[in-house]
Write a structure and sequence with these properties.
Elements lengths: L2 E5 L6 H9 L6 E5 L4 H9 L6 E5 L5 H7 L4 E4 L15 H18 L4 E4 L4 H14 L8 E3 L2 H15 L10 E3 L6 E3 L12 H12 L1 H9 L7 H18 L5 E8 L6 H7 L5 E9 L2 E5 L8 H26 L3
Parallel strand pairs: 1-2, 1-4, 2-3, 4-5, 5-6
Antiparallel strand pairs: 7-8, 9-10, 10-11
Helix pairs in contact: 1-9, 3-4, 4-5, 5-11, 6-7, 6-9
The protein binds nicotinamide-adenine-dinucleotide and (2S)-2-hydroxybutanedioic acid.
Length: 329
């Protein structure tokens, strides 16, 4: 029996993501939690004749979060405010840092063994926040905490197909680093199946992958950021974990993890200037991350330059998250 929970379930991402989980045969129970509107979203989804039983909770002074999380195997967190034009993801830190801290505290108390998937931005900092909270409750298992960077991977294959043609569902591109602007590094030299990207198109393509989020924020013109493509990408990652949980082998997905705590991660940490959190392709198994793979050993000179900028940006983002929790206690 698999119980999944979405925290922030009434939001732009939360609703379509909950729909996808509710109709997944891999989920037996889906609990929805948000500070508003969960009774309505829950009633709506509960009429679907899928396999998942849907339950919905409001805070109820803390009892709602406890009920939503108790017995959970997988918790997906898209709670928090989205960007408006002119904002960076880091501008969301002020509000979202506290939201993720409180929800991670709930995970530590009520379902400490669950897989935790963080979508709330800025992911580069909110994942370190969740890790620090779990550590402070002595329940941190780095093989079970994931920053969701799948949207960058989805965008990379779509945008590559836009340039070179071919089946956009078939391109696999390791996207490493973090999840904001220059910290997003698509390793197009390792694209599979192999295609030649025209040299005069390379920089614009990389820039589009790095700043794809801005494209949506601009188009939505004040009404938020990517929600539907994110729900799709977030579901794909959750589904990959659930499939691995069913003993399916050979599942590898890029995700932002705590390198020192995942097999293969320490070696990568040495390559990335000691950064503790970094997105790399990770092999998944029934207990979460099995092994971090290292695509950095064969990057091009151009990608090496992109990586240098990424390391610089990530360092500050990670420190900001860690410090946020350190200064609270
Ligand atoms: P939204 O405003 O539509 O929804 C957010 C939801 O979170 C709302 O329903 C709100 O009530 C809820 N919420 C706020 N505080 C909460 C709390 N303490 N507990 C539970 N729920 C709470 O926003 P959205 O468009 O769904 O985006 C959500 C977050 O996801 C944003 O931070 C956004 O930047 C981020 N995001 C990340 C990625 C990624 O690739 N990782 C992609 C897109 C968006
Ligand atoms: C995205 O990449 O679409 C998300 O991180 C949302 C944003 O703020 O761009």
């Amino acid at each position: 029996m698999v119980k999944a929970s979405v925290l922030g379930a009434s939001g732009g991402i939360g609703q379509p993501l909950s729909l996808l989980l509710a109709i997944s045969p891999l989920v037996d129970e889906l609990s929805l939690y948000d500070v508003v509107n969960t009774p309505g979203v829950g009633a709506d989804l509960s009429h679907i004749n899928g396999t998942a039983k849907v339950t919905a909770y409001l805070p109820e002074g803390g009892a709602g979060l406890e009920k939503a999380l108790t017995g959970c195997d997988i918790v997906v967190i898209p709670a928090g405010i989205p960007r408006k034009p002119g904002m960076t993801r880091d501008d969301l830190f002020k509000i979202n840092a506290g939201i993720v801290r409180d929800l991670a505290t709930g995970v530590a108390k009520y379902c400490p063994k669950a897989f935790v998937l963080i979508i709330s931005n800025p992911v580069n900092s909110t994942v370190p926040i969740a890790a620090e909270v779990l550590k402070s409750h002595n329940v941190f298992d780095p093989t079970r905490l994931f920053g969701v960077t799948s949207l960058d991977v989805v965008r990379a294959s779509t945008f590559v197909a836009d340039v070179v043609g071919g089946d956009r569902t078939k391109y696999k591109i390791p996207v490493v680093g973090g999840h904001s602007g220059e910290t997003i590094v698509p390793l197009l030299s390792q694209i599979s199946p192999k295609v030649d990207i025209p040299a005069d198109k390379l920089e614009a393509l990389v820039n589009r992958i790095q700043f794809g989020g801005d494209e949506v924020v601009k188009a939505k013109d004040g009404a938020g950021s990517a929600t539907l493509s994110m729900a799709y990408a977030g579901f794909k990652f959750a589904e990959a974990l659930l499939r691995a949980g069913n003993n399916e082998t050979g599942i590898v997905e890029p995700t932002y993890i705590y390198l020192p705590g995942v097999p293969g991660g320490k070696e990568i940490q040495d390559t990335v200037g000691g950064l503790e959190f970094f997105a790399v392709p990770v092999e998944l198994g029934p207990n979460g991350a099995v092994r971090a793979t290292n695509p950095l050993v064969k990057v091009s000179d151009y990608e090496e330059k992109l990586l240098e900028k990424c390391y610089e940006g990530l360092k500050g983002n990670i420190a900001k998250g860690v410090e946020f929790i350190a200064t609270q206690s």
